[in-house]
Amino acid sequence: MRVGLLTGGGDVPGLNAAIRAVVKRGEGEHGHSIIGFRNGWKGVVDGDVMPLTRRDIRNVLPTGGTLLGTARYHPHASDGGLDAALATLEAERIEALICIGGDGTLNAASKVAAAGVKVVGIPKTIDNDVWGTDASIGFDTAVSIATEAIDRIHTTAESHNRVMIVEVMGRHAGWIAVTSGIAGGAELVLAPEEPFDIGRIERFLKHRHRAHASFSIVVVAEGAVPAEGTPMHYETQVGKFGEIVAGAIGERLKVEIEQRTGFDTRVTVLGHTQRGGIPTAADRILASRFGVAAIDAVTAGTSNVMTAIQGEQVVLLPLDEVAGKVKFVPQDLLTVARALA
Amino acid sequence: MRVGLLTGGGDVPGLNAAIRAVVKRGEGEHGHSIIGFRNGWKGVVDGDVMPLTRRDIRNVLPTGGTLLGTARYHPHASDGGLDAALATLEAERIEALICIGGDGTLNAASKVAAAGVKVVGIPKTIDNDVWGTDASIGFDTAVSIATEAIDRIHTTAESHNRVMIVEVMGRHAGWIAVTSGIAGGAELVLAPEEPFDIGRIERFLKHRHRAHASFSIVVVAEGAVPAEGTPMHYETQVGKFGEIVAGAIGERLKVEIEQRTGFDTRVTVLGHTQRGGIPTAADRILASRFGVAAIDAVTAGTSNVMTAIQGEQVVLLPLDEVAGKVKFVPQDLLTVARALA
Amino acid sequence: MRVGLLTGGGDVPGLNAAIRAVVKRGEGEHGHSIIGFRNGWKGVVDGDVMPLTRRDIRNVLPTGGTLLGTARYHPHASDGGLDAALATLEAERIEALICIGGDGTLNAASKVAAAGVKVVGIPKTIDNDVWGTDASIGFDTAVSIATEAIDRIHTTAESHNRVMIVEVMGRHAGWIAVTSGIAGGAELVLAPEEPFDIGRIERFLKHRHRAHASFSIVVVAEGAVPAEGTPMHYETQVGKFGEIVAGAIGERLKVEIEQRTGFDTRVTVLGHTQRGGIPTAADRILASRFGVAAIDAVTAGTSNVMTAIQGEQVVLLPLDEVAGKVKFVPQDLLTVARALA
Amino acid sequence: MRVGLLTGGGDVPGLNAAIRAVVKRGEGEHGHSIIGFRNGWKGVVDGDVMPLTRRDIRNVLPTGGTLLGTARYHPHASDGGLDAALATLEAERIEALICIGGDGTLNAASKVAAAGVKVVGIPKTIDNDVWGTDASIGFDTAVSIATEAIDRIHTTAESHNRVMIVEVMGRHAGWIAVTSGIAGGAELVLAPEEPFDIGRIERFLKHRHRAHASFSIVVVAEGAVPAEGTPMHYETQVGKFGEIVAGAIGERLKVEIEQRTGFDTRVTVLGHTQRGGIPTAADRILASRFGVAAIDAVTAGTSNVMTAIQGEQVVLLPLDEVAGKVKFVPQDLLTVARALA
């Protein structure tokens, strides 16, 4: 059986562990040929193939990045993209396609499945917002990196009267912010799930520092936003800048907090360090289990599903049930974050 | 409300995060007094108390060990132990007791509950064999430490014709061995769940090295045993030694493999490094959630239950349902370990 | 003998290891009393003392921060500050003072020494720019943190056509930028020692990406500056912002590079993560050796000196020879950074 | 110019960083061809060559192991080995040879140099016992791994009355034991430099535990030996075992201490984890500087020298001055280890 494989969207640690599992299990147990496509869907559209054998996956288990390359490209988004993709799959005689990616990639997967191609998805995103699975590949590593950063800042913050802002990833959901905030013991966590009131933040910090504390750590997700009717007066100061830098929200908060409280405020922008480096053991185990489950599903003729972890079980969910939905941080976790601040 | 708190059994990273959560939430939200007992059940029997306030838990979140101390002691195991424990709890006017520990500690907890004391348990063990919960405090950290060790050995093993044995913890269940074996890419994983056939190991290693490989990594749980009727001929050589060292199985395997295959074989015994150091983010989050759930349960008057994580939810399980059972590594995980070897 | 001890300036990992060494050796071998001053020179001026015994230094060896607290305050900079400091030292009957700090703290130390107080300095700064010593406490840890960040970004950068900027500390000297750039394999390192020509950077990046590369990593020290007559045209865009944020140079470079090359450019600002967390083994060893050398020097009646590491030897240098000088990155190291880009 | 390159002896982290530096600088700046030999001197004798270009060294900077492979083989040790090596070098028209290795490899290098071949050595050994250089490639990483292990054991040891033995590498010199003992805060360090008196160890532990301590950590180098006339009575118990396991000294000490003190004693054998994994920033920088210095020396026509780091300078030392000597741990460092126990 000829099985296609691609990794789409942004890099996350653990992709190579999943690729390795698909190849080892697919070639070793099932005798399939695994045909990789370079740079996600782009490689499918361009017919950029890279056959994978066990030799190609030696020593990749603990490595970050993806040996197949990736790209933020969706076939159905460009004219004729979908047709070109289908043409390649036919030309390469691909009998089933395994797509490792986030919301965008999985969306494209269900589109391709709708066109009659057998497709199995594997969820990966450090944002952990793929619906239906307890965890996606890359999330555990990102949280551990963010937590380590908060730990480091803790030791320095203690000896000064200061506000330390740590900006982490999370556009639509605040999983990294909330969990690393709990793990690192942040005083304040700002997530997209709960638009923040800058006035209350000001009062909280002033009260806390007046009371006793010599410092406060604020973890903010890149997608955090002010609540309606709670203007950030000073953001105009960095207006233009607001559009042009990634670190926008962290910098904007800094200006706002300094102007309102007079506390020396510092910003750390973790940026792409959250997407890189050695995957944690948990991410490698998850990726390995997903890879095995995906190739086994393909072998069993299953299609249009996504692997998911639910409790201790790896299960298969219909892609259409999953695609387009966002898994937000549940209330009880937000409560824990608040309770332990 | 006066709430007692103890940590029993062996150390694991994350205990302080759980203690911190109980104190912060209990004192801050519920206005309880948290009375710690030193060295697990021993402190209850001896009346060795340590009242805990928020000051005591500053900066403990990322630390290993337990600020309350611990001991492998069970009140019902010694004459009058249980009565002494109950007497202390009454003298200290403890209205509910939170017990953080493994099988032994939780067992004692249900005994004390049977005597009419309100008790809530929190599972911790790097062995991850507490029944009913996806994970126990300490497991994730232990796996990450074992995996890091396997990663390191990988880079050295490659350039020599060698067998590298890594002995990890796991007396009754092979969770650390199996998961770190998957995460680290071990060639062979020996767990208590599947008694091993030394003859098959010999044939596997000889074939593998004859074929191509320059090395093999064997991860063995301390509780792994040979299958019936598959004698380890050379273990007599280290007979006496067998009783006297912790690293028994690793050393015995080394002798056996060297004698049978002639391959240079090295052993790494991780020992207590698996129980120590900084808890991973995942362990801190789990411990924090358990701590909050336990004190909330106590406040709600719930008793004789254990906190457990099932998927994304923290739930409460009857202690009697859990106590005395062992959670073994499921087949599908053993299959993944084999498939990716 | 009553020996005073203070830590001044910014936090660095390893301060507690030095404090521990002074106390253990001073109390244990020499029978001195060690009198700590809180928050650096401020504590001397305010008479804020904290006697230190072996109990106080338990378990501090691997911790970041400083148990004495620190502050960026110099007695000679404020009216009567120096007199107040001398008054406290006399009131506390301090026979000698050990000052752990960077340029500013050591400067103040020589001022106090000039007033007749016996003083021994210990150099600490992640910038590594203290003259006369191969290394200062904190530098090795900061470099390892910056290098780890570059490693992580490497794995993500590979799969995209991108410029990744990593801003590290280093106001006057580029030690962190140059060494982490070498260790991490950066394509470009911008240090204060060599003002950069933005036009050449533009040409270098365009040529490199046209040629073959899919990405470039640029490490920039916070103190890096454009060379005379090589205007950064677009910085006006972030003009005001330029004054108000710490991450100025990184953000300014980003804007400049994106405007000139059109390459997607991302910035990571490590900020205070470089000053925190667990000290590396090398920093703990250096701090321990400095602490022992300092208390031994004090005991021997030596004064007005600073401990320094030169090769494998810890030596004592006259404070006046050291104070006010800056140790820049030597040419040969800059050459290695360029050669391996 | 055709320059040969080999890595000999045991693996250490940082070898790939040195190889990368030689290739990048040699090819890029000097236009040389770099001819690698596989598996150290064995590859030279067998004519097993591997031409190296910049493509071959992509992404190897942070990796452990050696892409050239290595072997513990010395040409002059086997009949005709030296002649065969010289024949290969002539056949391959090698104009100069860079040898990265420890004492054995550098010894062979000076033999080959004596036969008229231009040779430059680069010192690597986690034992750090190469004479004339402050540090050798691999040492810093090994110390950091051993220190991390001691840190972890610290947190677990605290809550029990126990002796924890950590066996580290170091056959002839105790560099890893002494430095990681200082960095980790061990109570006792046993190094080859100072044969130990088991009776004094017994008295020290008994007194310490009687006095106050709940635990003691003993770091022992694999090459540590009992002093003359201080028999270890119980080692007979593990006599035979003594020959057959690597971890001999650790296990022997355990038995001895348990029998003499009755304290529960545990052993951790770090083994090859000390030789593997990601090189620290310091090791990568050292390796990069050595690689550049070696290829520059070769280009300048220098021969029969070894690169060495002395303070902040990389210098060249005559191979004959270095070969065969052992650099022991100096007294002042042993004193610091004792003083801070």
Automatic annotation (TrEMBL), chains A, B, C, D:
Gene encoding the protein: pfk
Keywords: ATP-binding, Cytoplasm, Glycolysis, Kinase, Magnesium, Metal-binding, Nucleotide-binding, Transferase
Keyword Transcription regulation annotated: no
Enzyme superclass (EC): transferase
Subunit field text: Homodimer or homotetramer.
Cited function: Catalyzes the phosphorylation of D-fructose 6-phosphate to fructose 1,6-bisphosphate by ATP, the first committing step of glycolysis.
NCBIfam families found in the cross-reference section: PRK03202.1
Binding site for substrate: 125-127, 162, 169-171, 222, 266, 272-275
Organism of derivation: Cellulomonas phragmiteti
Origin: domain of life: Bacteria
Binding site for Mg(2+): 103
Reaction equation(s) it catalyzes: beta-D-fructose 6-phosphate + ATP = beta-D-fructose 1,6-bisphosphate + ADP + H(+)
Biological pathway: Carbohydrate degradation; glycolysis; D-glyceraldehyde 3-phosphate and glycerone phosphate from D-glucose: step 3/4
Protein name (database record): ATP-dependent 6-phosphofructokinase
Entry's EC annotation: 2.7.1.11
HAMAP family per UniProt: Phosphofructokinase_III
Active site per the UniProt annotation: 127 (proton acceptor)
